[in-house]
Write a structure and sequence with these properties.
Blueprint (H helix, E strand, L loop, with lengths): L2 H13 L3 H14 L4 H13 L3 H14 L4 H13 L3 H14 L4 H13 L3 H14 L4 H13 L3 H14 L4 H13 L3 H14 L4 H13 L3 H14 L4 H11 L11 H10 L9 H8 L3 H9 L11 H8 L3 H9 L5 H19 L8 H13 L8 H19 L6 H8 L10 H5 L5 H21 L11 H12 L17 H6 L17 E5 L5 H9 L4 E6 L2 H14 L4 E5 L12 E7 L8 H10 L1 E11 L6 H13 L5 H16 L3 H7 L7 H8 L9 H10 L2 E6 L4 H10 L9 H10 L8 E7 L1
Parallel strand pairs: 1-2, 1-4, 2-3, 4-5
Antiparallel strand pairs: 5-7, 6-7
Helix pairs in contact: 1-2, 1-3, 2-3, 3-4, 4-5, 5-6, 5-7, 6-7, 7-8, 7-9, 8-9, 9-10, 9-11, 10-11, 11-12, 11-13, 12-13, 13-14, 13-15, 14-15, 16-20, 20-22, 21-23, 21-24, 22-24, 22-26, 23-24, 24-26, 26-30, 32-34, 33-34, 36-38
């Protein structure tokens, strides 16, 4: 056998995409010459194309070990290590290839990819530039340079890279898509649409281009077209989290007039992705479910005037147990829908009655368990009758007796009690946790016993970074110790992290940061981190971030620590502390995020000043403050609470909610607005929404004055309501208008729901 000739043939076959033939020929060479490195390189390439990453690594390493003097072997191994997300090892191998062959373009490209794998975007830019300098027509180097330039916020140059690639390869769909991405980040949305359409004309099955087109169409307020694009994207690539993140954004305001057979499955897949926050899509999910024949029949069929004995719980629960989408949304989030809340309240009562009478059957357990999980998540916000309270007490005594005697506890008992009371609070909870349970209630045991017990353990390990002396701070701490806020199950993680600068200057924010240079490893302070939802989002959003997350409540911090460990983040440090005392920690930060916290201080501007003092020159702040205009309904709700003298006990919060619901149904517009808020549908969030011990509200002129006093430059709002943003831009086409708080104030006066949640904005220290 002429080994050299056969090796050349195998490389040619590989280049032609004839993988089986290339592998067979390389194998034949190795049978004769086991130490032939080029044959191992061919196999490495074949394995990589087939998605067999471990085998590809083995073959590439073998090629390198046999002859470490060959730069191609080192570069090849570097490329495969990048695919394996082993950035440091890939960097080492790429550097070895460059040491042997300084003008080896592919080695420079692989070095850039290795840097990018480590989120070292600026180093990646330098490596790709070197590759382009060595070979200006190398389309791979230009493509990668353009991609990473987008990540660091150099969108105009990124667009030029894609244009150069298209001159060399006019029919390259990926280059058209990349150009569309750069144009989108430049705010040239119509031009971006044209490029995405060109990409899809060249490659109709291009999932990323469908997604990107949908994302831009959404920004252009073309929701129907955007929805179609996103569904097409996820059908082509159902494992890509970025596609689901954009699909979620498209769905936030969606309401369905009709539903096709695949939509329920698409929404179910959506709920399982790490980039999706269930609370954002509750209403679209419920809108879709109302078209489900069984679900709609149950909702319509339950009469709230019926006697409990007339509710056919077993039949209804069995039907609901066959609707996976409904079960999953029950498990993941409170449901902000009064009609569904009433239905669940009735069904919970019927479940309890059947459980006491030992009528419960196995086939109803999927729904019963989901209901127990749901009630724990909404913290038992549903109203209870006196009969229910007595039955719950009776059920609890039954379980206690059975546990004491070491006898089996019927799973139906556990599920029914868990739908009314958190199981971990009972003295026998740990004994239940030690027992073996069938699959149908393991989730209930885990959520209501195992995880809270873990949080108790974590609570004792959280350190304090400051004292808590302020009277108001102490009252706020007490509130969140009693009601950690919010009790979240899933949140939306960013698909791919970016530098601070790239994130803020790119789509959809387009902030002007001037000559700001992003730190490679930003130090971030989360001032008031609650139960950790915001810190993990920030940790996934910004490259190489190091987070210090501070909160008053140890119970909130323990919840945050557990969830952070569950999600695998290791770059967040949770500590107890008071914003008013943080000036003593003698640290500086590149970014300080304080969302929904300052307005709960006795003197919000004083607390804000303390945070500004901790910010490096040129540093960034992400601030969230309540709007006076946007919270007129909450002002009315707080007046009602003061008038009727409601306490913050769970019972009084439930009673207050029922009064608000009754007033809304009688035509009170402000109460109806409260009922339309997501936060109204769980106990801790309702307490935070209406019963908070300390609340300030602001107008935009007040914020403008505060920014001036604090020497902060307003950069812009971070808005989920793209329609309001579009309306503002149409009224004020000048790009400078987006940073004019006086214009935004006039806009809010005419559109009072614009900042109904809060003002969430970015600013920069001068």
């Amino acid at each position: 056998m002429d080994v050299s000739s056969e090796i050349r043939r195998s490389f040619d076959l590989f280049a032609a995409g004839q993988l089986d033939e290339a592998a067979e020929l390389a194998g034949a060479v190795l049978a004769v010459s086991p130490e032939e490195p080029s044959a191992h390189r061919v196999l490495a390439g074949v394995f990589l194309r087939r998605g067999q990453l471990d085998q590809a690594l083995d073959s590439a390493r073998r090629a390198w070990e046999i002859d470490p003097s060959v730069p191609e072997a080192a570069a090849n191994l570097a490329a495969i290590l990048v695919e394996a997300r082993q950035g440091e090892a890939a960097e080492q191998m790429a550097r070895r290839a460059i040491e042997m062959a300084p003008d080896f373009v592919s080695a420079w490209v692989n070095l850039g990819l290795a840097y990018r794998c480590q989120s070292r975007q600026h180093d990646a830019v330098d490596a790709f530039r070197q590759a382009v300098q060595l070979q200006p027509e190398h389309h791979g180097a230009l493509t990668n340079l353009g991609n990473v330039l987008c990540e660091v916020g150099e969108y105009a140059e990124a667009a030029e890279c894609s244009r150069r690639v298209l001159k060399m390869r006019p029919g390259m769909a990926a280059a058209e898509n990349n150009l569309g991405n750069a144009l989108q980040d430049l705010g040239k949305l119509e031009e971006a649409v044209a490029n995405y359409q060109k990409a899809l004309g060249l490659k109709p099955e291009y999932a990323e281009a469908h997604n990107n087109l949908g994302h831009v169409l959404g920004q252009l307020d073309r929701p129907t077209e955007a929805f179609t694009c996103h569904r097409r994207a996820i059908s082509l690539n159902p494992q890509n989290d970025l596609l689901y993140a954009h699909f979620e954004a498209c769905l936030v305001t969606a309401s369905f007039a009709s539903v096709d057979d695949n939509l329920y499955q698409d929404l179910l897949h959506l709920l399982e992705r790490p980039t999706v926050r269930p609370s954002y899509i509750i209403r679209p999910v419920i809108s879709a479910l109302r078209h489900h024949p069984d679900f709609s029949a149950i909702v319509e069929g339950i009469s709230f005037n019926q006697q409990d004995s007339e509710i056919p719980y077993r039949d209804i629960a069995e039907q609901l147990s066959t609707i996976p989408l409904f079960l999953r949304i029950l498990e993941l989030s409170p449901i902000s829908d009064l009609e569904i809340e009433r239905m669940l309240t009735v069904l919970r009562r019927a479940m309890l009655a059947e459980t006491i009478e030992r009528k419960t059957e196995e086939k109803v357990f999927p729904f019963s368990a989901a209901l127990a999980l749901h009630c724990f998540t909404n913290e038992y916000v549903f109203p209870e009758t006196e009969e229910e309270k007595e039955a719950v007490e009776h059920l609890q005594e039954k379980i206690a007796t059975l546990v004491e005697k070491g006898r089996p506890v019927p799973p139906s008992y556990v599920v029914a009690l868990g739908a009314y009371r958190p199981l971990f609070e009972f003295p026998w909870a740990e004994k239940l946790n030690q027992r073996e349970w069938e699959n149908n209630i393991t989730g209930v045991i885990k959520q209501q016993i195992s995880e809270p017990l873990e949080e108790r353990s974590l609570r004792d390990r959280i350190s304090s970074i400051t004292s808590i002396q302020n009277t108001i701070s102490q009252s706020v701490r007490e509130q969140y110790e009693e009601n950690p806020y919010p009790r979240w199950i899933k949140t939306s993680l960013t698909y791919k992290s970016r530098s601070l600068g790239a994130d803020l200057t790119g789509s959809p924010l387009f902030f002007d940061l001037g000559d700001y240079t992003s730190p490679e490893s930003p130090d971030i302070l989360m001032a008031g981190c609650g139960t950790g939802q915001h810190p993990v989002c920030i940790a996934s959003r910004f490259s190489n971030a190091r987070l210090l997350a501070v909160d008053l409540s140890l119970n909130s911090l323990a919840y945050a620590e557990r969830k952070t460990r569950e999600l695998g983040f290791s770059n967040i440090e949770y500590v107890q502390g008071d914003i008013l005392e943080l000036g003593k920690i003698e640290r500086q930060f590149d970014l300080i995020a304080c969302i929904g916290v300052l307005h709960h201080l006795g003197d919000p501007l004083a607390g804000w000043q303390i945070l500004v003092n901790l910010l490096r020159p040129g540093g960034l702040m992400n601030i969230g403050l309540y709007s006076e205009i946007g919270r007129q309904d909450i002002i009315a709700g707080r007046s009602l609470i003061a008038e009727k003298g409601y306490s913050t006990s769970p019972e009084d919060i439930r009673r207050c909610r029922q009064d608000i619901i009754a007033m809304a149904e009688d035509g009170d517009n402000e109460m109806a607005k409260i009922c339309n808020r997501y936060d109204f549908f769980s106990l801790s969030e309702c307490r935070d929404l209406l019963f908070h011990v300390q609340e300030h509200r602001f107008t935009l002129p007040q914020i403008e004055e505060g920014l001036k006093d604090l020497n902060l430059k307003f950069l812009g709002f971070e808005m989920r309501d793209q329609r309001a943003l579009k309306q503002f831009k149409e009224s004020h086409p000048n790009s400078n208008a987006l940073t004019s708080l006086s214009l935004w104030h006039k806009f809010e006066l005419g559109n009072p729901d614009t900042f109904r949640g809060m003002y969430q904005f970015w600013c920069q220290k001068s």
